[in-house]
Specification:
Layout lengths: L3 E12 L6 E9 L2 E8 L5 E2 L10 H28 L3 E2 L5 H11 L13 E2 H4 L8 H13 L3 E3 L8 E4 L1 E3 L2 E2 L3 H13 L11 H25 L9 H13 L2 H17 L11 H20 L16 H10 L11 H16 L11 E4 L5 E6 L5 E5 L2
Parallel strand pairs: 5-9
Antiparallel strand pairs: 1-2, 2-3, 3-4, 6-8, 7-8, 9-10, 11-12, 12-13
Helix pairs in contact: 2-5, 2-10, 6-7, 6-8, 8-9
Length: 387
């Protein structure tokens, strides 16, 4: 507080309420306004007649810090209490996409023989290549936080430190290593130790979504050298899904590159993608290309994935580890890839007892060569070889 002290006189008739020492009567100005108050001659405690100003002596500062700390602790207790009332998901109940995202975050951070925190330090990894683009992973974190799957460690702190608020095998608050290991079993063990999806369609939906995000990443990569922003939106996503039905990702890369170069030469692209102006221009141009290609029966060229374009952790896990595919995932339409992928996934997701047709099954994935199904309804056992 900046004051211009005009006069200071000792007032022995007034004692300091803290140390009982005599106080000064101070006449001062603050921002050309008259301000009078008492100030202790010993501890510098200040008393204002209007009680609208704060004292900044050591005792008052300490009291305010203590009150703030108590308030913060009380808020944390209330938050912890409210957390107990919030539904806690089983790890297996999460969507396939959310499981994939969590594994992409944790896989490089959590190992058995290395030290790690029991929370996700999002600030330190949010710019890593976890997903094809930053906007996607930021949106996923917000969604998981909204669903209380990711829970902030401290609401009053500036850091984004998240606990994973799930149950594992019926136990609450599992360790981060236990969660990571379970996710690794689901995605890396060729379905021999469990299934991370509810249906084959859920995997297909995630495959479409991730390949669409790969297209967005390619467009952003191409525009970055021009200092131009671009991002996806619902309309562009729907259009990309229609293209993914008939074209390979590499062919879409070629169309996007051609369209962006044309728009850039026409000086139609704006530095900022306000109201998705660049996204909508790109979509309109791609639509025109596709309509003309169909009418004139063009064969769309295929552009290889640029080697300098980093492959995200999510894409690598899904394409190469979980689906067992290679770079061909970018060079053929999804329908062709899906013909090879779907039968195996459907077997694991649509399991029924061959004796009574019940879906109430206990599945034994312990063996790497076969899967055993135990019907809880009729007690029948089925054994399937997986090799």
């Amino acid at each position: 507080m900046t004051l211009n002290v005009l006069q200071k006189q000792l007032d022995e008739s007034t004692a300091c309420p803290l140390c009982q020492a005599a106080m000064y009567w101070v006449e001062a100005e603050q921002f050309d306004q008259e301000l009078n108050y008492h100030e202790c001659s010993h501890c510098h405690h200040q008393l204002y007649p209007d009680q609208k100003h704060n004292c900044f002596c050591e005792k008052c500062l300490a009291n305010r810090r203590r009150q703030m700390k108590e308030t913060r602790l009380q808020e944390n207790r209330q938050h912890q209490k409210s957390k107990q009332d919030v539904h806690q998901y089983e790890l297996g109940q999460l969507s396939f996409l959310n499981k994939l995202f969590l594994l992409a975050i944790l896989d490089d951070q959590v190992h058995e023989h290395s030290q790690h925190a029991e929370y996700i330090d999002w600030d330190s990894i949010k710019y890593h290549n976890i997903s094809p683009n930053y906007l996607m992973q930021n949106a996923l974190v917000k969604r998981l936080s909204k669903e209380n799957i990711l829970s902030l460690k401290d609401f009053n702190a500036d850091q984004q430190h998240y606990y994973i608020n799930v149950r594992l095998d019926g136990y609450s608050e599992p360790s981060l290593f236990s969660i990571t290991q379970q996710l690794r079993h689901w995605f890396y063990e060729n379905l021999s130790k469990g299934v991370p999806f509810k249906s084959a369609d859920e995997v297909k939906e995630t495959l479409y979504f991730l390949l669409y995000q790969e297209v967005i990443q390619f467009a952003q990569f191409y525009c970055r050298s021009w200092g131009i922003q671009i991002a996806g939106n619902k309309s562009f996503q729907t259009f990309c899904y229609r293209m993914l039905d008939v074209l390979a990702v590499g062919q879409i890369y070629y169309l996007v590159q051609t369209a962006l170069e044309y728009l850039y030469k026409q000086k139609a692209l704006q530095p900022r993608n306000e109201n998705f102006i660049n996204t909508n221009l790109l979509k309109k141009t791609l639509q025109q290309y596709r309509e003309r290609a169909i009418t004139e029966k063009w064969e769309t060229s295929t552009l290889p994935r640029p080697p300098q374009l980093p492959l995200s952790k999510m894409s690598a896990i899904l394409f190469f580890h979980f689906l067992g595919y290679d770079e061909n995932i970018f060079f053929q339409p999804i329908w062709r890839s899906w013909q090879q992928i779907e039968p195996r996934l459907k077997f694991y997701s649509n399991k029924r007892c061959i004796h009574c047709g019940s879906e109430e099954l206990t599945v034994d994935y312990d063996a790497t060569d076969y899967v055993s199904l135990f019907c809880r309804n009729c007690k029948h056992q089925d054994h399937y070889f997986t090799r």
